[in-house]
Amino acid sequence: MKQNYRIGVIPGDGTGPEVIAEGLKVLAAAADKAGFSYELVHYDFGGERYLKTGETLPDGAVEELRQLDAIYLGAIGHPDVKPGILEKGILLNLRFALDLYINLRPIKLYPGVDTPLKDKGPADIDFDVVRENTEGLYAGAGGFLKKGTADEIAVQESINTRKGVERCLRFAFEHCRKRPRKKLTLCGKTNVLTFAFDLWERTFRELAAEYPDVETDYAHVDAICMWMVKNPEWFDVVVTDNMFGDIITDLGAMIQGGMGIAAGGNINPEGTAMFEPIGGSAPKYTGKNVINPLAAIMAGQMMLSHLGQAEAADMVERAVMQTIEKDLKSMNAGRMGMGTTEVGDRVASRLAAL
Ligand code: IPM
Ligand code: MN
């Protein structure tokens, strides 16, 4: 196994730098314990840089990032920059340019974390969403006709390629096969989106024949929003397109205890990958040492797992679980019973003591 990594760090905007600093503390503790080493390459991409230079990603950035083993991202989004510019220019741009075609988002309720779901506990809420990350409504296909007139037309098309759908579904089947329950649910809208989800469903059925050990199921996206609240224990791995994946993973984040804990990985299984807390830049909490860094720490945990450092990843998860059970009052910003930096210190020291 490789033992030395080059990791790109993009702290980004708002609370991004604060939570990434804690994630890096835990990464250092994990490296000490597991005996691997790494070099960090820092990038200042984000709102501040854009306001100063007018640049989102500079020339050559993508080629440079492509050479790294992984990218660790804080948050993108700045109150003084028009919505869409940084998201499109940095986050979506990296997802597309690096062909990070999988967005993997675990929905796991840890013991001691509050869920708004009555009578549900950690045994009921433990599934992964595999979101397609480069196509669908995010592809940017469409445009305006007669913009600004009374006859204006806006078209935004969902792009679904056989190749894009198949590689996402294949990743989901392979991923599901590694989990004990081996149940894969396709989430779509075959009753209305009869072209896009016809392609998804046909490809899903074809691949299912190659994976007889994986049980398959289907749910419409509206129904899955209902089932995720009523019967989350039904799900093991859910695979879906980009837009539906965006929506259902915010719902997922809430049932697993909120944005303070929700992490995700933008992955190209054959190339590099970028890990991030999914909560955004949270301007109102910025600079106050109140934001929960566990989502960023868990994004780091996913990065370790992706890099093949299974033992280190496992240790981070255990240290986080201990911190939740023994030290934290709540997952919510400002109500944790300690500050952002103390949470990072605590996870790192618990990890060192494992
Ligand atoms: C997410 C975010 C992004 C998305 C935004 C910031 C572009 O909501 O990562 O889920 O829609 O994918
Ligand atoms: Mn989202």
Tell me what you see in this structure.
This protein is α/β, with parallel strands linked by helices and 354 residues long. It folds into 2 domains: 207 residues, Isopropylmalate Dehydrogenase (3-Layer(aba) Sandwich); 111 residues, Rossmann fold, CATH 3.40.50. 40% of the residues lie in helices and 22% in strands. It contains 11 helices and 12 strands. The strands form 2 sheets. Strands 2-1-3-12-11-4-5-10-8-9 form a 10-stranded mixed beta sheet, with helices on both faces. It has a two-stranded antiparallel ribbon with strand order 6-7. Strand 8, helix 6 and strand 9 form a beta-alpha-beta unit. Helix 7 runs parallel beside helix 8. The longest helix is centred in the N-terminal third of the chain and has 19 residues. It is globular. The model has no long low-confidence stretch (mean pLDDT 97). The site of manganese (II) ion has 2 residues, from helix 8.
Labels describing this entry:
alpha/beta, 11 helices, 2 domains, 40% helix, two-stranded antiparallel ribbon, 354 residues, 12 strands, binds 3-isopropylmalic acid, ten-stranded mixed β-sheet, binds manganese (II) ion, Rossmann fold, globular
How many structural domains can be distinguished in the coordinates? 2
Category from helices, strands and their pairing: alpha/beta
Helix content: 40-55%
Outline type? globular
Largest sheet: 10 strands, mixed
The CATH first-level class of the largest domain comes to: Alpha Beta
Q: How are the strands ordered across the major sheet?
A: 2-1-3-12-11-4-5-10-8-9
Please give the number of β-strands: 12
- Radius of gyration (CA) equals 20 Å
Cofactors and ligands present?
Answer: 3-isopropylmalic acid, manganese (II) ion
